[in-house]
């Protein structure tokens, strides 16, 4: 096999944020607008060329043993499927997916691992000119499959790392994290390709937020910054009921086929909600209204958006329970992300006291829900090569992989 030199790097660390959708999930799949922002909770990936004959993928969040392929099997796969390596984003075809089945046998029974490794394999075989031995480990501070965009942040991490390993995007050192617009677009486009493998028919909002960070109104690939978002505070609560975005998106598709004249106006209504939200933020920026006015408007939008999503068939008794429980304290909640389980967001008012917030959270926890403390509007994807003498970094990384929620300042810089 012809040897192709990889960039002279020891290893690369990549990170990408999760997201919260305030309004417009599912409708955004049909070209309507969604209001979304990045979260302080991130996914991290570490990659290194090994020079040996194996590709090793470690996904400790979802799979306890490492997934491994030898280069001969990967070369046969690449050759038999005429895969031409290029940085031009290309979707996984049905033929290539079928041909990949033997490579996925060992993890077929692990929920989520099949899609995650298929997405990785597709990007790896598309971007590497010749299969090369590499080792990859992905670990997330986000709950996986809970509506906070873990699949998008996973996709952004593997896209950025594999592009960087192949020299398609520059590899900054830790201290310099400036990426140009072309590089970010390439990462976002490949992350979308990966999201398609995981979700089937994603809108692109999650990978866009994870790539670019901040808060935005997202419509069919168009991103408009929404500065007002950062002044909104909420509680994020995981019902801990597992959900699968692909299945929820498919359920809405089927319902839309069955009840088009009913579902289409619901999608239009969600567009109206996102438009109204944008107008409220706009008026706030012009100082035409106060934050309190914005929140009064938002409370109604949260309620209406949730009920429309419920009519689309993507609520769950546990999400309704969170709405009920928080309503007792005058707070409004809605599902966020794909629904059917996963997370709810509860809007807080500017005058909601700390004591009340703590009381609500402790009631939620008493019902075995999990509440997250995090910030919104954080930076998007970052990648950088680690110093060659990276023993310290490796120690930190291993610690993070083992302890997941460890508060590690060095990691938070990337
Ligand atoms: N940290 C991770 N490691 C491996 N795979 C991941 C990770 N995070 C997400 N995924 C992939 O994404 C899937 C969850 O995606 P999805 O159903 O869209 O939920 P979410 O709301 O978290 O994006 C997982 O089953 C897995 O295939
Ligand atoms: C339901 C949807 O609007 C968001 C899904 O987000 P998540 O995978 O549940 O985090 C789908 C999409 O926009 O691709
Ligand atoms: Mg997802």
Automatic annotation (TrEMBL):
SUPFAM superfamilies: GHMP Kinase, C-terminal domain, Ribosomal protein S5 domain 2-like. InterPro entries: GHMP_kinase_C_dom, GHMP_kinase_C_sf, GHMP_kinase_N_dom, GHMP_knse_ATP-bd_CS, Mev_gal_kin, Ribosomal_Su5_D2-typ_SF, Ribsml_uS5_D2-typ_fold_subgr. GO terms for molecular function: ATP binding; metal ion binding; mevalonate kinase activity. Keywords: ATP-binding, Cytoplasm, Kinase, Lipid biosynthesis, Lipid metabolism, Magnesium, Metal-binding, Nucleotide-binding, Steroid biosynthesis, Steroid metabolism, Sterol biosynthesis, Sterol metabolism, Transferase. Pathway: Isoprenoid biosynthesis; isopentenyl diphosphate biosynthesis via mevalonate pathway; isopentenyl diphosphate from (R)-mevalonate: step 1/3. Its EC number is 2.7.1.36. Its main location: cytoplasm. Mevalonate kinase; part of the second module of ergosterol biosynthesis pathway that includes the middle steps of the pathway. The second module is carried out in the vacuole and involves the formation of farnesyl diphosphate, which is also an important intermediate in the biosynthesis of ubiquinone, dolichol, heme and prenylated proteins. Belongs to the GHMP kinase family. Mevalonate kinase subfamily. This is Mevalonate kinase.
């Amino acid at each position: 096999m012809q040897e192709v030199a990889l960039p002279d790097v020891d290893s690369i660390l990549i990170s990408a944020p999760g997201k919260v959708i305030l309004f417009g999930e599912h409708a955004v799949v049909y070209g309507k607008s969604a209001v979304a922002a990045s979260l302080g909770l991130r996914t991290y990936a570490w990659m290194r060329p090994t020079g040996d004959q194996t590709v090793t993928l470690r996904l400790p969040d979802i799979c306890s043993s490492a997934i491994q392929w030898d280069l001969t099997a990967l070369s046969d796969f690449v050759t038999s499927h005429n895969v031409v390596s290029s940085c031009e984003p290309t979707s996984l075809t049905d033929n290539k997916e079928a041909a990949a089945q033997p490579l996925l046998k060992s993890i077929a029974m692990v929920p989520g691992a099949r899609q995650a490794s298929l997405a990785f394999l597709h990007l790896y075989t598309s971007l590497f000119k010749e299969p090369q031995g590499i080792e990859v480990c992905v670990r997330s501070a986000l709950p996986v499959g809970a509506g906070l965009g873990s699949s998008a942040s996973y996709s952004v991490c593997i896209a950025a790392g594999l592009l960087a390993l192949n020299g398609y995007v520059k590899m900054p050192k830790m201290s310099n994290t400036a990426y140009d617009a072309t590089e970010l677009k390439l990462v976002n486009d490949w992350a979308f390709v990966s999201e398609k493998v995981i979700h089937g028919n994603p809108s692109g909002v999650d990978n866009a937020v994870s790539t670019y960070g901040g808060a935005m109104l997202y419509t069919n690939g168009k991103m408009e910054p929404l500065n007002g978002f950062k002044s909104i505070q909420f509680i994020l609560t995981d019902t801990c009921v597992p959900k699968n975005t692909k299945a929820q998106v498919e359920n809405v598709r089927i319902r839309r086929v069955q009840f088009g004249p009913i579902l289409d106006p619901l999608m239009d209504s969600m567009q109206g909600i996102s438009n109204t939200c944008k107008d409220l933020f706009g008026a706030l920026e012009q100082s035409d209204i106060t934050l309190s006015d914005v929140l009064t408007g938002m409370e109604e939008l949260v309620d209406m958006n949730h009920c429309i999503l419920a009519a689309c068939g993507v609520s769950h008794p546990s999400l309704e329970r969170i709405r009920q429980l928080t309503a007792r304290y005058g707070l409004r909640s809605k599902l966020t992300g794909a629904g059917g389980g996963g997370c709810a967001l509860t809007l807080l008012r500017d005058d909601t006291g700390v004591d009340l917030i703590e009381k609500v959270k402790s009631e939620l926890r008493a019902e075995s829900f999990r509440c997250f403390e995090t910030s919104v509007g954080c930076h998007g994807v970052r990648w950088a090569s680690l110093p060659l003498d990276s023993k310290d970094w490796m120690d930190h990384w291993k610690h993070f992989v083992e302890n997941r929620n460890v508060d590690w300042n060095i990691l938070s810089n990337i």
